[in-house]
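Appendix C reproduces, verbatim, an entry submitted by the partner laboratory led by Prof. M.T., so that reviewers can inspect both the input and the predicted structure.
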Amino acid sequence: MRFRARHPNAIRHVRVTTGAAVLALVCTQAQAGPVGTVSDLSDPALAQGYTLIDTRPEPECLKDAPERARCLPAEWLFDDTGELLVTFHVLRWLLGTIGLSGDETLVVAGPPAAGQTAKAVAGLAHLAGQAEVFVLAGTDMGNGPGGAARSFSREVVYTAPIRDAALIPGQTAAPMITRMITYATKGGRVVFPAKL
């Protein structure tokens, strides 16, 4: 006898063999968010290479970000109330000005006290189409030679397709930064204004 579950995160199937008292359960793990976490830049998940972005204010990034970091301040993306300042068109242009095409493994970093902001930026980059995104957790960013400022024009054209299946047009009371943190850590779909 075989039963099939209809929900994708439920038990996939149960097979009962009469007389043998055998019960096999094949379960799926709960879906985690699309953004991973690494504790340092030597993590095996980054062995094939990565691009590091520093989400602190640009003067801080330029002063002492880790080597090869690119500066993309969170304040360019979110306002003081946590709402989004850019459309996807502008976001993808900005990502091109820091050398991203969307194919790279991206590591998003920021000061430990603002780790949630780094998660929001990481979630936004993933929605924009970035291939793989991690947040660098618990790291003091202020001990490197300084990051690189973005170009005034695109260094490369950002070509990764937007993950529009994860977007729901509409309005909600939750600030965009909160929605991005939830998306980064738990996945699911995100309510976005139709203009984006």
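Residues 1-30 form one domain. Additional entries are available on request from the coordinating office.
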